[in-house]
């Protein structure tokens, strides 16, 4: 390889890293900035709505998006655009109709925005699936957080126009954009639809349904925390938890970068190599979490002045959300081994059991009047830890032992120490 080729590859890598940092930086800092200029009730409602959108869009896709990589990469089909436009158009009609009905029935922006967010997230998941499948890295970076970017952009425009960010104009602006996307999808569907479309749709639905269930359970365990806090506690609690979770999610960027750059290596690696790699990456994320916690304790009130009145509560919750995100990263990494070993169906059954136990634990604590924001966060973290142990059990039973990983996963429990003392 000559010097010019090395420079070209280095330049491409540097450009991708810059784009990755910019995209993830906006997704990380944008919501934190917006939380400073929205009132706590509106911000909590928006976060709750976006979480509902993530789960709802997964369900309404009916598994079509899960089948797209199989159709394009394995079957080598080059005509999937009509399936993609149908997903966006159908979710758009259902979501916008539900938003209109919800607002007419109660005038509550929570239900209306949740329905509209399903449409925006449906477009996001569809675009991300397609661009990731065909290898468009930069478009994947944009589409991965498309719904959040739209929310931030509309919020920024509203702030420039009004000097503040009430939720009503944000919902109208977001809704107007997704209405345009829905109309465009219908036009594009009319131009790309194939003969016997519904037969192709049924085939893709059968192929991708179980993949959707697996993804849905995974998304539910990871992303339903804000929904469940809103149900069992309050919208104000959603706001406090969301800020802590947004801060902690910086840890997940390590996995996203490594997983994007070295997906093939991770997938093909031996169990022994993967076991060593996992311990190293876990150590890196632990150090990152420690830096986050230290920075928050020293400068949290300065960096997030609007949350000064909640600093004591957030100091007790943030270590738990850091522990939660570390185990989330671990769960995402173990998916490489689960998929390679072809035991995703078994893993899904265990994930469903873990999700059920999570809801039972929250309901029990609530009934006993023991449920606080900190204990709720601890339940979410323990659910991920239990899911990890179930996956390791399945891998071990299928002759893929990861002994170093099994031991290392107990290390994040050390964050319970600052959680306990700072909460007190």
Automatic annotation (TrEMBL):
Keywords annotated in UniProt: Membrane, Transmembrane, Transmembrane helix
Coiled-coil region list: none
Keyword Transmembrane: yes
Top-level taxon of origin: Bacteria
Organism, scientific name: Inquilinus ginsengisoli
Protein name: O-antigen/teichoic acid export membrane protein
Transmembrane segments: 12-34, 54-74, 83-105, 111-134, 146-165, 171-189, 209-233, 245-265, 277-296, 316-336, 348-368, 374-395, 407-423
């Amino acid at each position: 390889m000559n010097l010019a080729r090395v420079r070209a590859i280095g330049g491409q890598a540097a450009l991708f890293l810059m784009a990755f940092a910019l995209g993830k930086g906006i997704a990380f800092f944008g919501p934190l900035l917006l939380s400073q200029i929205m009132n706590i009730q509106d911000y909590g409602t928006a976060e709750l709505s976006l979480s509902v959108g993530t789960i709802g869009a997964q369900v309404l896709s009916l598994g079509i998006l899960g089948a797209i990589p199989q159709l394009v990469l394995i079957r080598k089909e080059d005509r999937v655009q009509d399936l993609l436009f149908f997903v966006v158009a159908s979710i758009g009609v259902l979501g916008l109709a539900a938003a209109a009905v919800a607002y007419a029935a109660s005038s509550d922006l929570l239900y209306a925005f949740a329905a509209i967010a399903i449409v925006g997230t449906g477009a996001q998941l569809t675009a991300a699936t397609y661009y990731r499948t065909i290898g468009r890295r930069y478009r994947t970076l944009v589409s991965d957080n498309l719904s959040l970017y739209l929310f931030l952009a509309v919020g920024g425009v509203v702030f420039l126009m009004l000097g503040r960010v009430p939720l009503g104009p944000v919902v109208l602006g977001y809704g107007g954009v997704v209405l345009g996307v829905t109309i465009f999808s219908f036009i594009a569907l009319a131009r790309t639809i194939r003969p016997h479309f519904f037969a192709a749709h049924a085939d893709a639905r059968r192929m991708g349904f179980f993949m959707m269930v697996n993804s849905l359970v995974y998304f539910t365990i990871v992303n339903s925390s804000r929904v469940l806090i809103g149900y069992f506690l309050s919208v104000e609690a959603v706001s406090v938890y969301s800020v802590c979770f947004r801060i902690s999610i910086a840890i997940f960027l390590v996995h996203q970068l490594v997983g994007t750059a070295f997906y093939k290596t991770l997938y093909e690696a031996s169990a022994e190599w993967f076991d060593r790699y996992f311990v190293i990456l876990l150590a890196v994320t632990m150090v990152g979490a420690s830096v986050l916690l230290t920075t928050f304790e020293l400068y949290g009130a300065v960096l997030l002045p609007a949350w000064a009145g909640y600093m004591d509560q957030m100091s007790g919750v943030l270590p738990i959300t850091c522990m939660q995100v570390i185990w989330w990263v671990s769960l995402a990494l173990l998916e490489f081994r689960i998929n390679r070993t072809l035991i995703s169906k078994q893993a899904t059954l265990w994930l469903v059991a873990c999700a059920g136990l999570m809801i039972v634990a929250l309901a029990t604590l609530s009934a006993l009047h023991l449920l606080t924001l900190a204990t709720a966060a601890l339940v979410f973290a323990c659910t991920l830890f239990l899911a990890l142990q179930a996956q390791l059990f399945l891998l071990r039973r299928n002759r893929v032992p990861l002994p170093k990983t099994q031991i290392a996963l107990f290390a994040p429990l050390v964050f319970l120490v600052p959680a306990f003392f700072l909460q007190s």
